[in-house]
What we know:
Elements (H helix, E strand, L loop, with lengths): L7 H5 L2 E4 L7 H10 L9 H9 L2 E7 L2 E10 L4 E9 L8 H11 L8 E4 L5 H5 L24
Parallel strand pairs: 4-5
Antiparallel strand pairs: 1-2, 2-3, 3-4
GO molecular function: acyltransferase activity, transferring groups other than amino-acyl groups
InterPro entries: Acetyltransferase_Butenolide, Acyl_CoA_acyltransferase, GNAT_dom
Protein name: N-acetylglutamate synthase, GNAT family
Amino acid sequence: MTVFMNDEAFIKKGYKISTDKALLDVDMIYNYLNDESYWAQGIPREKLEKAIANSLCFGVYEADKQVGFARVITDNATFAYICDVFILATFRKKGLSKWLVQTIVNHSDMQGLRRWSLATADAQGLYSQFGFTQIIKPERWMEIFTPYSKPQ
């Protein structure tokens, strides 16, 4: 399903957001996550491709060039985890990340969820605008964390 999110201010400037995976620039996404992100450095390309295939993905585009990305891991009924959110450096400070998160939380398939989750080291201010808070009872949450090792 293709979803083009309408926000007149961004559309007039030539931007769009779509969930059409055929539009994704997987090379750009991989290069950003592997080389520039703090959370996915060393990710094998095959893992990223599988993650994209099994997630609801949002691409941010200026004309036909992809300038941002986000993935949502969800069952479309009770839970969604937002991850791999980024806007390329030259396109930041334009409000695109805020528009992207707004588009995600307002997506028709994401309505009525019981819980949203995400992890961030530096964007709490962005996500708090949409109701995200610190985990109320972190002692109830557990994880197995196996970071990727970046090839030397």
